[in-house]
Amino acid sequence: MLTAASATTGLILSAGMTFAQTTPAASPPAQAKNAGYYRFRVGDISVTVLSDGLIGGPPRVYASDAPEAELQEVLRHAFLPTDRMTLNLNTLLVETNGRRTLLEAGAGQTMGPQGGRIFQNLAAIGLRPEDIDVVVVSHTHPDHVGNLRTADGGKAFPRAAVFAPRADWDFFVRNDPDLSYMPVPEDFRRNFAAAIKRSVEPVTTGIELYEAGAEIVPGLTTLPALGHTPGMANFLVHSGNDQLLLTADLAYHPIVNVDRPWLPGPDRDKDTALTSRQRIFDMAAADRLLVLGFHYPFPGLGRMLKTDAGYAWVPVNWQF
Ligand SMILES: [Zn+2]
């Protein structure tokens, strides 16, 4: 029987006869892999998750108070490596009334070589960086602002107005932040702080600083979600009765920060971050909101279920 593989390669069939290929092979180009974008609608608004790729680190960083044996067991039960946790970078393009707003800029190469895919995923949906009108970041960690700068130091989104939370700008950009709370080596902290300043340098003139709670463009409300950083916001995209909640870095990976209550090590004020997490997860569960987790497995969409022990993450079905 002719298999798909033999049909495209035109090689030897099981009966020993040679299949003479008469049409060009329909094999995909070498660089074509899986989709890094995912489109759906929120009411009248067209939205697209655009992956910027991956980052990651030791699981302990993202589950700072987990008992070691339990952490290892949870990772093993999820068929995940026990020495490294991979995180996604799920930015969201919001298209409404002819305006294109990008929520989170993504990491670029600031936190490893697997970031920076947003531009090829934009191209895959027929857009260029100059087609973006507005960029809003939830906070100014490098994995959320890294793509604001081109390799030669220019503006990566040349026409876009860029919005960042004022308290983060004051803490990370206008000052030299004390990052001793982060459970990472000193040189990592130094590079992290430098990557923020370097990434936002091209947009410093003209930066729009916002207070969480403001509606930045019609259909996009920001919500205070403080604690992870001094100014972190969450985003609510709304149209008619439809809503989508973007939880930024309230949690890194659902298996350690939603299904288990472990605290992310990079949270600067862990008590405030916990209060924000519970307040927003409770709202998401009560209102059955569709949620996008910035770092969750692509495309990062699901719902929060309230359980006796806390919460559970329930991914939604893929839409074609
Ligand atoms: Zn992040």
Task: Give the gist of this structure.
This protein is 23% helix and 25% strand. With 320 residues, it is α/β, with parallel strands linked by helices.
How many strands appear in the DSSP assignment? 14
Percent of residues in β-strands: 25-35%
How much helical structure, as a percent, in the residues?
A: 10-25%
Which ligands does the model contain, each kind named once?
zinc ion
| Radius of gyration, whole Å | 21 Å
Count of individual helical segments = 9
Low-confidence stretches: 1-25
One letter per element, helices H and strands E, the order comes to HEEHHEEHEHEHHEEEEEHHEEE
Q: Main β-sheet: number of strands, strand sense, barrel status?
A: 7 strands, mixed
Describe this structure in words.
It contains nine helices and 14 strands. Mean pLDDT is 92; it is low at 1-25. 42% of the residues are buried. A seven-stranded mixed β-sheet has the order 1-2-3-4-5-6-7. With 320 residues, it is an alpha/beta fold. Helix 5 (142-145) links the parallel strand 5 (134-136) and strand 6. 23% of the residues lie in helices and 25% in strands. The structure holds zinc ion. The site of zinc ion (ZN) has 6 residues, from helix 5.
